[in-house]
Amino acid sequence: MKRVFLGGTGIEIPRLFIGTGTSDQWDQCIQAKAPPEKYALILKEAYAKGVNFWDTSDDYRTYSHVRLGMQGIPRENLVISSKTYGGTAQESLRVLNQALTELETDYLDIFFLHSVDSIQGYEKRIQDALKGLKQAKEEGKIRAIGLSTHTIHILEKAVEHPDLDVIFTNFNRYEIHMDASIQWYSRTLGKGFGLGKGILVMKTLGEGLLHDRAKESIYYNLSRSFIHGVCVGIVSQQDLESTLKVLEEEEG
Known about the structure:
This protein is α/β, with parallel strands linked by helices. It has helices at residues 36-48, 63-70, 89-103, 119-138, 152-158, 182-194, 214-222, 237-251; strands spanning 3-5, 12-14, 16-19, 53-55, 79-84, 108-113, 142-149, 166-170, 198-202, 229-233. It has a single domain (3-251), classed as TIM Barrel (Alpha-Beta Barrel), CATH 3.20.20. The chain is 40% helix and 19% strand. The model has no long low-confidence stretch (mean pLDDT 96).
C-alpha cells in the first residue's frame, strides 16, 4: 500500500484511512452500536493489510472499539486521531486527556478542533481552544494539530493558519455535503498543500449516498494530487474488503 508523509508533520500515513464515525439516518454512529470486540477485529485486519491510520472522536463513542483494536500492536506503528468540540483551552485539554485515558495511550498523532463551521466559532476556538492544543503539542501529548470543517470560508482561513498542521474537510466529486463547488474546494486545498499542510478528506462516499459509486468516488479522491489521505467509514468486514479491493486496483 502506498504511503505518504502528511504535509510537514513527519507522520507517515497510508493513502486511505478508516473513519469510525459513520452516521445513520438518525445521525447516530453506526460503529458505536457494534460490539467493541467485534469491531476491533476489523481494525486489526485493516492493520494487517497496511491500513494503520484510524480516526475517532469522543462524540463517536468508539474509543473502546479503537482501544481494543490497538491492543497487541506497537503504538508507534499506528496513527490515531481524535477531535474536540471544546471552545476553550481548558475544555480542549479535558477532552484530550479523556481520549488518552480511554484509548490507553500517552499521545495522539493528530488532534482536531472538530466541525469548525462558522466564522464566529472559528475565531473563538482559534483564540482560545487552540492554546490548549499548542500546550499539549509542546508536552508531547499530540504530534500534530488539526482542524476539521465542512465550510469553504473556514477552509480558506484554516489552510493559511500557521499553527494548524492538518486540515480535514468534506470532498467528493458529486459535491454532496459540500457548500461550494469542487473547483473551489480543490483550489483551496491545493493552496494548503502548497503551504505544507497535511490534507485529509472525508465524505468520500457522501455518508452512504455514493455507495453504489464507491469505486469511482474513492478513485477520484485518491487521484487528487493535493490530497494526502482519504477517509472512508468502515462499518463491517465486507466494507473493509470491498474498500481494500478498490485501493489495490487503483494502486495497480
